[in-house]
Every structure is written in structure tokens, then in C-alpha cells.
Write a structure and sequence with these properties.
The complex is a heterodimer of chains A (148) and B (112). Chain A is α+β, with helices and mostly antiparallel strands and 148 residues long. Chain A contains five helices and five strands; from the N terminus they run βααββαααββ. Helix content of chain A is 34%, strand content 28%. In chain A, a hairpin with a 3-residue loop joins β4 and β5. The chains are: A alpha+beta (148), B alpha/beta (112). The complex binds adenosine-5'-diphosphate and magnesium ion.
């Protein structure tokens, strides 16, 4: 199976496009399902990919998600072009959000996104450059027997 | 309990033409915050909310929820309902408040 050599997918995410928001995460979910990845692990991936994708939609201009799979782990790298984050430590705090009133009315902006990525990832690295963009690196390990 | 039994028991209105009526419902989750649902709802849960915009469909699909119950007589627009049908997400409507329909679902399902 191609997966044993490792597998890589690339997705484009458009900032501000709420109509298409979530599509990339649904595609990722589909790919993991087709590969027979353990549903418990697939659910953790769904949470982290959705939160990372929504942050690009809400705060950035555009972004690119790369999903990499190998027998050991699922890796997601999401790089965006956008305003960046001045204080990443503060952004990681539960409840911290700069979402607009309009986004809050839609149920976004709970300030739970980054904390939930951290909770569900085995490794999570958030780096950002103000005025340039933000990069999320996420690793979720596949336990032995984590795939069919 | 199946989705169909719950729809009948609570008198919910089907807003989508869902074919997943024999889906087992594992419990309910009531929230209007999408990140909260992403973090805390469980597969097979019925999601009770007043949110009606198109992003609720992706959340329900990503979390393998049994369906969405939209409260207070609200109704998602046709495009959202079309997408829900395409993604095979059941969307149900009720005149009840979130509090009331949550209570009624809880009574029906027990403490799940
Ligand atoms: N990709 C990004 N680009 C710019 N700012 C971001 C990005 N991701 C997160 N942020 C900032 O971090 C804050 C916290 O993010 P998060 O925990 O996902 O909560 P929420 O999205 O609900 O605000 C956001 O409100 C925003 O200010
Ligand atoms: Mg967020």
C-alpha cells in the first residue's frame, strides 16, 4: 500500500470564505476513513484540522494545509498568509479570542480552538510572524494497530 | 433509541429528507458554540442548537453526529439544507426552546 511509503496531500484554504469552511477537514476525514485509520484517532484529527482550518478562514488571507501520513504518525502543517499573532502564548489561552461580533453570533470565537488543538495533538507547535502569517505544526501518533 | 423514534417521540419536524432514520442516537449535546461541540459532543449525539448557518453541517459530519435539532422555530436557509442532504446530515426543527427540547430528549433517552 502506498501508505507504507508515506502519503501526502495538499489543500488550499481561502480566508473569509465561510461558505466553504470545513471542506478541507471533511476531505481529510474522508482520506483517513478510506485508509482505515482508527476512528478514535480520526476524531482527534478532525478536531485539530477543523480548528486550524477555521482560524485561517477567520483570521488569515489564505493558507495551505499539508497532510502527511506514514505508519507512525499523522502530521498536519498549516501555513497561512495573514496578520500573524503578536503573542502566541496569549492566543493559546482558553477563552482568548479576537473574533468579531459577527463571528461570535455564528458560534465562533469561543477561544477554544488553539487549546483544543493542543489537547488533541501529541505535538503542537505554533509560530507566527506579525504582518506575515502563522504556522501550525501538529503531530498525532498512530498507535500500533492504529490502522486496519 | 433510533433517530426515527426520537423524531416521533418529540414531534420534531424533518427539514432534510434524511435517510438515516434508523441511526442509533447515543445522547444529546446542547450548545451554540461550534468549538464546544467539536470538543465535547460524542458520535451519535443529537446536537441541539439555535445556530442555522451553513457551518453547522460540517461540524455535524466531522463529529459523526446523529443529527441537528434547530430550536425556537428557526429554519436554516435552503442552501444549508441542500448541503445537509448532500452530506447526509439530518436537520430537524422544533418550536421548543433549547432548554425544553433538551429536557424532553433527556427524559426519553435517560442519562446519556
Ligand atoms: N491563523 C491565525 N492568524 C491570525 N490570528 C490567529 C490565527 N489563529 C489564531 N489566531 C488568534 O488567536 C486567537 C485564539 O484562537 P482560537 O483559540 O482558535 O480561538 P477563536 O478562534 O475562537 O478566537 C484568535 O482569536 C486570533 O486572535
Ligand atoms: Mg479558532
Amino acid at each position: 500500500m502506498a501508505f507504507d511509503q508515506g502519503l501526502s496531500h495538499r489543500f488550499e484554504i481561502k480566508g473569509g470564505d465561510f461558505a466553504k469552511a470545513g471542506r478541507v477537514s471533511l476531505e481529510v476525514k474522508e482520506i483517513l476513513h478510506d485508509l482505515g485509520i482508527d476512528p478514535v484517532i480520526a476524531r482527534r484529527v478532525a478536531i485539530v484540522s477543523y480548528e486550524a482550518e477555521m482560524n485561517v478562514v477567520m483570521y488569515a488571507t489564505r493558507g495551505e494545509m499539508v497532510l502527511q501520513l506514514d505508519p507512525e504518525a499523522i502530521r498536519i502543517v498549516l501555513e497561512d498568509e495573514g496578520p500573524g499573532i503578536r503573542d502566541t502564548e496569549m492566543a493559546m489561552r482558553e477563552g482568548y479570542s479576537t473574533a468579531t461580533e459577527q463571528m461570535r453570533e455564528m458560534g465562533f470565537g469561543a477561544g477554544m480552538g488553539l487549546p483544543n488543538i493542543k489537547k488533541n495533538a501529541d505535538r503542537f507547535e505554533l509560530t507566527s510572524e506579525v504582518g506575515k502569517g502563522t504556522c501550525c505544526r501538529i503531530v498525532i501518533h498512530l498507535s500500533p494497530g492504529g490502522r486496519a | 433509541m433510533t433517530l426515527k423514534e426520537i423524531v416521533e417521540g418529540l414531534g420534531l419536524r424533518a427539514l432534510t429528507t434524511h435517510e438515516c432514520e434508523d441511526r442509533q442516537v447515543t445522547g444529546g449535546y446542547t450548545s451554540d458554540l461550534l468549538s464546544d461541540v467539536m470538543a465535547n459532543a460524542r458520535p451519535g449525539n443529537l446536537w441541539i442548537t439555535l445556530q442555522i448557518h451553513q457551518n453547522i453541517v460540517a461540524v455535524a459530519r466531522l463529529k459523526d453526529l446523529a443529527g441537528i435539532v434547530v430550536v425556537n422555530g428557526r429554519r436554516p436557509d435552503d442552501e444549508t439544507l441542500r448541503r445537509a442532504d448532500a452530506e447526509r446530515v439530518a436537520v430537524l426543527g422544533t418550536e421548543d426552546s433549547a432548554f425544553r427540547v433538551s429536557g424532553r430528549l433527556h427524559r426519553l433517552l435517560g442519562d446519556s
